[in-house]
Amino acid sequence: MSNIVAIVGRPNVGKSTLYNRLTESRKAIVDDFSGVTRDRHYGTSEWTDHQFTVVDTGGYVANSADVFETAIREQVMIAIEEATVILFVVDVTTGITDLDDEIATLLRKGNKPVFVVVNKVDNTSQVSDATEFYSLGLGEIYTLSSMTGSGTGELLDEVVKHFEDVPLEENNRPKYAIVGRPNVGKSSIINALIGKERNIVTPIAGTTRDSIHIHYNQYGHDFMLIDTAGLRKKTKVKENIEFYSVMRTIKALEEADVVILMIDAVEGIESQDINIFHLAEKNKKGIVIVVNKWDLIEKNSKTVKVFEEQIRQKVAPFTDVPIVFTSVLEKQRVLKVIDVANKVYENRARKIPTSKLNEVMLPIIENYPPPSIKGKYVKIKYITQIAGATPMFAFFCNLPQYIKDPYYRFIENQLRENFEFTGAPIQVWFRQK
Ligand code: GDP
Ligand code: GDP
């Protein structure tokens, strides 16, 4: 399921502040100037039992004034097409502006749930000012202060009611999403894998080619490929190409079991790639990194090692990820990508019997117990894998609160060394026994 909450609105109404509030990312930059480049525009959020992705369209605003309104209009259209729910942010301190009216007109024509979020209502005396926004004709309004966080809970209670929490399509085939920046070779690898079957693509109005599911059943492999390649929506504003492809990437990623992240060997791993990597990790997806266009690299005996090292440094701390070097052009290791993705799929679904887990891990813990704190010792009694789609382990002990980060990392590393979880995010909990 992919539930995407898109935050739209004109500049300076507080979209980015709300985004930070919802994703609690300390990294994103909030600035008094609009149009500031922000390093992250999407992230995961949770409310009650629902996980979803929040996209801040503000990060994709074009800088030049002449395309500015066009850019915002297009973003709203893309959000209407792609998002599950739209948060339309307006500013109580300025009231309704022309651009607000324009956006409201587009949103009224769309068929997606829209929440009018009246922001900067920092104190109750401003609540009555907010009633003006009913005239946007989008129904109920939600007053909040992104700065203090007040009002966000009431909003999210309503937002999550619109989520699709039942999978649209139930099947047991593994799902692999091929993602990466434009021009890394996504279309090429898909063509190399499926050849002429490519024609099953059903184009959707307004897009040159949509992300689609391709059933692959050859050479003993049976899985679904989720293709995000060739997503070049016709757009007048170049920033929106990125915005659009990000929306599609998030959707494909959330649906997938394993994410195949393609990187251009010449350009190396960039911040956008790292963002996708972390999003996949946060969503507990299996991950395979593919370094394509390997034919363009001058190589010696150390080149692979150097590349691997650089990539692992950038994606740290989750470094136990397979990296495959391909040349789709020269048909090198294309099928290996699928073999590795299958392996990661297995690793992600791997269940370790409790007896085996205890037999292996308890002696390791005995040799290297958690450090004592103020003379108190943590005694780990037994370990069990928790049922779920991805590997999760509970370590039962007397004083779970005394376990610190380094010991979590130690335990995770030991699990990885002793069992095969390469490419799969794992979770470790210490629980009171
Ligand atoms: P964006 O351009 O829509 O993403 O807006 P920003 O998130 O960058 O916010 C624009 C300005 O409004 C910044 O100076 C924020 O600090 C301020 N702001 C955002 N939310 C609130 C709020 O709830 N109350 C007040 N008083 N100011 C806010
Ligand atoms: P996409 O935008 O990620 O779908 O990328 P494409 O598959 O359209 O590829 C972009 C360009 O890179 C095309 O010109 C391809 O022919 C080229 N390309 C793809 N794979 C390779 C490769 O392994 N080596 C080289 N040299 N070029 C490649």
From TrEMBL:
SUPFAM superfamilies: P-loop containing nucleoside triphosphate hydrolases (SSF52540)
Segments forming a coiled coil: none
Keyword flag Nucleotide-binding: yes
Location of the EngA-type G domain: 3-167, 174-349
Alphabetized UniProt keyword annotations: GTP-binding, Hydrolase, Nucleotide-binding, Repeat, Ribosome biogenesis
Entry binding sites for GTP 2: 180-187, 227-231, 292-295
Annotated GTP 1 binding sites: 9-16, 56-60, 119-122
A GO molecular-function annotation: hydrolase activity
A Pfam family annotated for this UniProt entry: MMR_HSR1
HAMAP family: GTPase_Der
Subunit and partners: Associates with the 50S ribosomal subunit.
Family the UniProt entry places it in: Belongs to the TRAFAC class TrmE-Era-EngA-EngB-Septin-like GTPase superfamily. EngA (Der) GTPase family.
Function: GTPase that plays an essential role in the late steps of ribosome biogenesis.
PANTHER family linked to this entry: GTPASE DER (PTHR43834)
Name of the protein in its database record: GTPase Der
Gene: der
